[in-house]
């Protein structure tokens, strides 16, 4: 018997859970040698966490609908967002705020969406303005990214489409379909599996029999890597490599970022029903913000005073965002009709008029 | 000027629009070298290349999701489901994304895509190749559901569908793909997507139909004429958003209505038209509205399928029934 094909999956890590480098300084990627930039990345990870904490508090006090927390995903998300260029397109699922804040989504827009108002998806700032909105149907965004990548290839544009999907989402036909067509057509796509170990209550161990999620890319003929998803240097480096390949016409890549969902799936979930606290605490010890802070402090570019000042700044920022959100009045009843089609069909215009007349009776 | 069939009109419309708009692309299974299993995309790949006429992997989910992505990036994709019975895996992307992207983003993003599919029975095809499922799309907000029933309407409506800024489900009655030829000038003139077409004027009864049943319905009108009954025939063509006014006007004139479609009866689109007539035209009606449809069964394999599809006899009998009342 001979071997028809052979593969192995590389694992990438620069920073261990204590914030110590596992490589020599000289082997760090260029962006990581720029400590000012690393401080910027850290600051966004912190603001993402402050934002997340604020969101949960809003939900618990009845000021927000169901909300999907990103606690523990900060390195993965900021690593993804910070590696992309403005002209690239991002197709997220529904908790990648760190990536989205980097690309110009405003916290008030996130609140607006989870607060029950479609205007939250009308991102005002570029480059987020040309990104996809949150995609609730699992993994469907992967194919939207693949389609975007196909458009870039047809038009010969040096742009890349990036999608993120969870460990659960990587079981779905849409994920396989996206990496498959990306391989077949050499599309400029980067598909990142943010493996946070839990698809609501279903653990990674019974999501698939595959040893890694990264190896799913092998079947699609794509380069792939598993990275420590709590190590922003590893995530960012893998992203930069994959984006460069895509931009150079070398096709798509898959990245598995291994992290942990420290919070509930959403505020409507109670993770204590299905997982042990010991496991969560063990994961918490490896969380991403703490380790980057330890690293930056060891490099003397961050300290408690800076931390306090930035936390205060973030608090003020988020308070402003929350206030802007809370001050927003609900849309008029006509809003549910006005974006169904580019032009309101006559038949729908009659239903719209009926809704308006009911409104005026109520008032 | 050349006489062409309905399917040649589809090809002609695709070729016209691709030649005049670089953003139009065609994608699906076997649409490239093979020109589609019915040859709807015949010759297009030679003219426009393998990227603009793309043979996709054999996965309907991939076709639909990729189509959404292309459209959001400003392309005008025309996706083909090889048979309408294969469209189910596409529905998540059609219903959850294509139809709601504009609404979800308050108009920031949109999906100007066309999803084409050979539709309906009557060609002695295997299982799953004969479905008529327009009703699965007609109550999805944000979609236009269009069924052409002649070469000229296939050409004009497909051009309109591609140019429309919103997603269109374009269901092609494959039973009449090659039924007859007519002159269809390749002039790029689109037909409106917001009107029903009155194919024959009449005064005694209104026959409302779409797709391949236009054939039997017109034949029924001929037969009724021989019996001295004057039937008006309406091809709905664009089911949603519905031009109900044209139907209401006709039924108010004739006082009688028979709705003909090959999809199953219960909750078929005929039920919607009948309900609207009851809501808005009841006092103009001289007889109960009749429906001639497929039965509430799966369309049988082909030895029985012609007994399932609405026949001229059934349409004539239903019309006579409306006339027997008064």
UniProtKB/TrEMBL annotation, chain A:
Role description: The pyruvate dehydrogenase complex catalyzes the overall conversion of pyruvate to acetyl-CoA and CO(2). It contains multiple copies of three enzymatic components: pyruvate dehydrogenase (E1), dihydrolipoamide acetyltransferase (E2) and lipoamide dehydrogenase (E3).
Occurrences of domain Dehydrogenase E1 component (ranges): 42-323
Name of the molecule in the record: Pyruvate dehydrogenase E1 component subunit alpha
Pfam families assigned: E1_dh
NCBIfam families (alphabetical): PDH_E1_alph_x (TIGR03181)
Reaction(s) this enzyme catalyzes, per UniProt: N(6)-[(R)-lipoyl]-L-lysyl-[protein] + pyruvate + H(+) = N(6)-[(R)-S(8)-acetyldihydrolipoyl]-L-lysyl-[protein] + CO2
InterPro entries xrefs: Alpha-ketoacid_DH_E1_comp, DH_E1, PdhA/BkdA, THDP-binding
Lineage: Bacteria, Pseudomonadati, Pseudomonadota, Gammaproteobacteria, Lysobacterales
Biological processes annotated in GO: branched-chain amino acid catabolic process
Organism of this sequence: Oleiagrimonas citrea
EC number(s) reported in the record: 1.2.4.1
Cofactor(s) needed by this chain: thiamine diphosphate
Subunit structure of this chain's protein: Heterodimer of an alpha and a beta chain.
Keywords, ordered alphabetically: Oxidoreductase, Pyruvate, Thiamine pyrophosphate
This protein's record includes keyword Iron-sulfur: no
GO MF entries: pyruvate dehydrogenase (acetyl-transferring) activity
From TrEMBL, chain B:
InterPro entries for the chain: THDP-binding, Transketo_C/PFOR_II, Transketolase-like_Pyr-bd, Transketolase_C
Top-level taxon of origin: Bacteria
Coiled coil residues, start to end: none
Key words of the record: Oxidoreductase, Thiamine pyrophosphate
Keyword Oxidoreductase: yes
SUPFAM superfamilies: Thiamin diphosphate-binding fold (THDP-binding), TK C-terminal domain-like
UniProt key word Phosphoprotein: no
Listed Gene3D superfamilies: 3.40.50.920, 3.40.50.970
Cofactor(s) listed: thiamine diphosphate
Domain Transketolase-like pyrimidine-binding: 4-179
Entry GO MF terms: oxidoreductase activity
Alphabetized Pfam families for the sequence: Transket_pyr, Transketolase_C
Described function: The branched-chain alpha-keto dehydrogenase complex catalyzes the overall conversion of alpha-keto acids to acyl-CoA and CO(2). It contains multiple copies of three enzymatic components: branched-chain alpha-keto acid decarboxylase (E1), lipoamide acyltransferase (E2) and lipoamide dehydrogenase (E3).
Protein name according to UniProt: 2-oxoisovalerate dehydrogenase subunit beta
